Amino acid sequence: MSDLINHRIRQSWTGDGAGAASLPDRAVRWLGQRIGPVGADRGRRADSVSNLADSALPAAAHEDLSALLGAENVLVDADERLARAGGLSYLDLLHRRLGDAVVAPDAVVLPASPEQVQAVLDLCVRHDVGVVPFGGGTSVVGGVAALRGDKPAVIALDLVRLDALVSVDEQSHVAVLQAGVRGPEAERLLGEHGFTLGHVPQSFERATIGGFAATRSAGQASAGYGRFEDMVAGVRVATPKGEWRLGVAPASAAGPDLRQLAVGSEGALGVITEVALRVRPVPTERRYEGWVVDGWAAGAEAMRALAQNHATADVTRLSDVDETAVSFALNAGLKTSALRAYLGARGVKHPCLLIVGWERDVRARQRVTAGVLRRSGALRIGTALGESWRHGRFSGPRQRDALLDLGVCVETLETAAYWSRLDDLYDAVRAALVASLGRAIVMCHVSHVYETGASLYFTVLTSRDDADPVGQWQRAKHAASEAIVGLGTITHHHAVGVDHAPYLEPEIGALGLSVLRAVKSAVDPTGILNPGKLLA
Ligand SMILES: Cc1cc2nc3c(=O)[nH]c(=O)nc-3n(C[C@H](O)[C@H](O)[C@H](O)COP(=O)(O)OP(=O)(O)OC[C@H]3O[C@@H](n4cnc5c(N)ncnc54)[C@H](O)[C@@H]3O)c2cc1C
Hints:
With about 525 residues, the chain is an alpha+beta fold. The protein folds into three domains: about 160 residues, Uridine Diphospho-n-acetylenolpyruvylglucosamine Reductase, domain 2; about 120 residues, Uridine Diphospho-n-acetylenolpyruvylglucosamine Reductase, domain 3, CATH 3.30.465; about 110 residues, FAD-linked oxidase, cap domain/gating helix (Vanillyl-alcohol Oxidase, Chain A, domain 3, 3-Layer(aba) Sandwich), CATH 3.40.462. About 35% of the residues lie in helices and about 20% in strands. Strand 10 and strand 11 form a beta hairpin. The two termini are about 30 Å apart. The N terminus is likely disordered. The chain binds flavin-adenine dinucleotide. The site of flavin-adenine dinucleotide (FAD) has 38 residues, from strand 5, helix 7 and strand 12. Keywords: FAD, Flavoprotein, Oxidoreductase. InterPro entries: Alkyl-DHAP_Synthase, FAD-bd_oxidored_4_C, FAD-bd_PCMH, FAD-bd_PCMH-like_sf, FAD-bd_PCMH_sub1, FAD-bd_PCMH_sub2, FAD-linked_Oxase-like_C, Oxid_FAD_bind_N. It holds the Pfam family FAD-oxidase_C. This is FAD-binding oxidoreductase.
């Protein structure tokens, strides 16, 4: 099939462009001055995709899957296959925008229960068909790429129909959700019982419970609610060797915690069908504040002081000088010139924005946090800035679409390190990106803090190199990854997928890798699960 007109293909966060943000003219001009040519004529979207191969799903497998799930839940038409052809990284979106050939799964399969997921796996073992577990498809590391490995065909096992709240143990504060429930629906279902998960990554609107667990996701409020793995009390996992259920008590000394083999398994060790989660009462009050600190080093010290004095807010976040400047420049709603004047009058030369937000025990905790921040030299700007951040907290992906439309290469990468290495890591990654990209804005924030260290989340904006747009980002990403090795982790929350697989061994060692391979061969001896991910 060639030159297929396809409206389902995901060229953006919003898919068809509805709901996409647009950037004010002055922001576009400001960007052009900083990174070179940008403009409406540079972000063309293809309305066609070339060379989508016909489905290679063997007829016998198709028949068996249809008998199991009903023909309407085994989709082989191009639209459905293209809609699951990869995730949402810059390169994923770029390939589709440019109309490049895409690799799509041979079929999309929609089981409706954990039992059906298990039966699909059994069937795929018999027919030797690869399986890509597909949640919200928001992976930015190639986690849902339709790779076949040594298999003749691969299906996307979309968990969208596993959309139920299974149970709520109100006494223990544990709820069981099926894997395909998306972030907002999880909050709605739990909210009916007076609970919240408090897991709000920027991909919240689309990503799923199963995807959060499979990638060790971290939400914007991780300082208060924990990373997703901290919330996981138990898992139900389908594997080619049968079902695995783990998690019978809040804590256990019965050997290594095998739940952690499912959490972060990225679809390579099993399909997570249900997750038991620690939940908390819905907050009755919230307060978000903006603070400013002078310079990145002072900001990082303030974050460390908060973490080590147990004074973090539920959201605790620091932007570096460049990210602060960009958010002032791109955010038309903020009265940024007045703010700059105020900061100048207070002697702040290199403003770095700090956002802190509390969702329980607000008054008492706010006093503790504020005390540490003041001692760290930070200035409170007020709740307007904090609330403005809270309201725009999910708008990043829409702004990314608007930037892609202008021909901007925009991508993010993340890592984490101990406090003693954080500055070195920050400098090394920045230097690698700038050396590779030339004229670029490289900005960073800390949004996940621990007593022992913090994450670093870099965002890069540069004018797209039309002669070699893919190579432009691949070289920069490689340079940044090389800079990370030895100083921090190759991924703090985006997971390994395809993109980080070459860097797994330097991080966990050859022995670590062989332990993971041994586990894989125990649960998936013929290697049908997510070929080429995690363990490339
Ligand atoms: C704009 C944007 C912002 C983001 N912000 C954040 C953020 O703030 N924090 C964060 O942690 N991540 C973030 N991400 C990354 C991504 O959203 C997370 O990795 C998320 O956890 C993936 O969930 P998903 O349901 O979309 O999974 P998918 O993308 O569908 O899958 C991700 C991986 O998990 C596997 N998988 C999915 N479901 C299952 C299952 N049920 N069983 C077994 N394996 C499964 C897939 O095979 C794949 O390898 C962001 C991504 C984007 C595009």
